[in-house]
Amino acid sequence: MFLWLNGSIQSVNEARLSPLDHGLLVGDGVFETLVVRGGRPFAAHEHYERLVHSCKATGLNCITEEVFTKSILGVMQANDLQDARVRVTLTSGDGPLGSERGLEQGTVLVVATPLKPWPPTEKVCLVPWTRNTRSALAGVKSVSYGENVRALMYAKDRGCGEALFVNELDQLCEGTGSNVFVVTDGRLLTPPLSSGCLAGITRQLVLQACVQAGISCVEEPLPGAVLNTCDEAFLTSSTRDVHPIARVNERVLNAPGPITVAVQQAFAQLYPRS
Q1: Do 191 and 222 meet the contact criterion of CB atoms below 8 Å apart?
Q2: Region at 122 (left for phi over 0; alpha for psi -120 to 50; beta for the rest)
Q3: Mind listing the pLDDT tens digit of every residue in the chain (274 residues)?
Q4: Could you tell me which of 36, 48, 150, 181 has the fewest CB atoms within 10 Å of its CB?
Q5: CB contact set of 89 (below 8 Å; sequence gap of 6+)
Q6: Going by CATH, does the domain composed of 122-270 fall within 3.20.10.10?
Q7: Backbone phi, then psi, for 253, in 5-degree steps?
Q8: How far is CA 76 from CA 4, 36, 40, 73, 144, in A?
Q9: What number of helices (H) and strands (E) belong to the chain?
Q10: What DSSP letter does each residue of 106-151 carry, written as one string?
Q11: What's the whole-model pTM score?
């Protein structure tokens, strides 16, 4: 396996990260995950724009879009991959053992692994912890994923493949690596960015696909309890696309329901993956 580290392709066996890297010590970094199919990165520009946003929000130096694209294609070629999940990670580099940043140049790490298929439908559960809409990292794709790791463990222990959060106002927010949409009383709804959710790239593209297909989708604050009454629900992410939810906690849903199917078709038509 080969990766891109600070400007060059290296094998996993030879690549070395400093034990003083702040990405490791204090989770001081940001990242993007995107998919490549048929050798072509999907929505690469949109992912790069979000990376720029995350860097500005955290005070990190961002790489250029040229380097972003070059590094992705480089690891794909080095690993002889046509279809892959690619992660681009930027950290602040070496720093003290505390929270203060050092003066070293940041770290850039790009890794590609083969795409793994998701099951046709997903099971999710609501976790007892909340997102904080006023957090300094709200809406930032930060490497500080400890909360997500714990939440996903909670979900896996209950036979689910994704965990959902509400925010401190008990409003539906997001999953650990996904955005969530619900259908209730025939209306397609999704939490607004003000809920504290990440501005998911696939979320954005699904909203665009709905507009093109004439499907009404409204961004509005939703109580977490909507999961107890909704008729349909689905997740969106770069690797999941539009992924129907078959069970919320112990509640079984129609999956995929008719509106979910319409969204899947609209998304596939506007953004074909082949």
Answers
A1: yes
A2: beta
A3: 999 999 999 999 999 999 999 999 999 999 999 999 999 999 999 999 999 999 999 999 999 999 999 999 999 999 999 999 999 999 999 999 999 998 878 999 999 999 999 999 999 999 999 999 999 999 999 999 999 999 999 999 999 999 999 999 999 999 999 999 999 999 999 999 999 999 999 999 999 999 999 999 999 999 999 999 999 999 999 999 999 999 999 999 999 999 999 999 999 998 887 5
A4: 150
A5: 23, 29, 30, 31, 107, 108, 109, 110, 111, 143
A6: yes
A7: -115, 160
A8: 10, 8, 10, 5, 26
A9: 6, 15
A10: PEEEEEEEE--PPPSSEEEEEEEEEE-TTSTTTT--BS--HHHHHH
A11: 0.95
Residues 6+ apart with CB under 8 A from 207: 190, 217, 219
CATH placement of domain 2-114:
3.30.470.10
Q: How far apart are alpha carbons 149 and 163 in whole angstroms?
A: 10
State phi, psi for 204 to the nearest 5 degrees.
-60, -45
Structure tokens at 74: 């480089």
Paired tokens of 63: 């790489």
CB 27 within 8 A of CB 142: yes
The residue behind tokens 């992912």 is 47
Instruction: Please give the structure tokens belonging to residue 188.
Output: 């397609």
Domain coordinates in residue numbering, the chain: 2-114, 122-270
Q: Which two tokens stand for residue 111?
A: 């890794």
